[in-house]
């Protein structure tokens, strides 16, 4: 039997294109969708980051000071820089994962890291945001410009947030929202 050449042949390929598929998948897996004012601004994040740098410096002094009693290897500047980087990355990775998106600086300023595609931060998300992206942002002095998008983007995200699909929100707004939804509705009784 001859087929009409103008007839379309059925294919096993999906009818949707890849961008549509990704958009649908992202819509299915959306968590922590907040209005723009819920996201922490550049200056709040910067102050929290400075507190975290002080905490990292204290940890480095304690840890390296303890090891310095046993060895003189930390007297070399390269080893000192590498040990600082390891402590810096370990601090941000472990605090963010184990403390539900908060470091000491974020706790003081009432901030929290949330993921838009997961309910809880996974190890993959934390390692991407706090490990790989912070490493890249610390690699060269010019990489500090990667923090600037936090001042101008809609969700106030820096480069690491874009790669890991995360954002930093202000806990006071979250508490206000949860209090509004938790309040019982008043019932009027006609007597």
From TrEMBL:
Q: Any coiled-coil ranges, and where?
A: none
Query: What main location does UniProt list?
Result: membrane
As for membrane topology, the entry says: Multi-pass membrane protein
The record's section on InterPro entries has: Pra-immunoreactive, RDD
Q: What range(s) does the RDD domain occupy?
A: 40-165
Name the UniProt key words of this record, in alphabetical order.
Cell membrane, Membrane, Transmembrane, Transmembrane helix
Task: Name a single GO cellular component.
Answer: plasma membrane
Q: Where in the cell is it found?
A: Cell membrane
The source's domain of life comes to: Bacteria
Q: Name one Pfam family in it.
A: RDD
Q: Which residues cross the membrane?
A: 46-70, 82-100, 135-152
Give the protein name, as stated in the record.
RDD domain-containing protein
Q: Which organism is it from?
A: Enterococcus columbae DSM 7374 = ATCC 51263
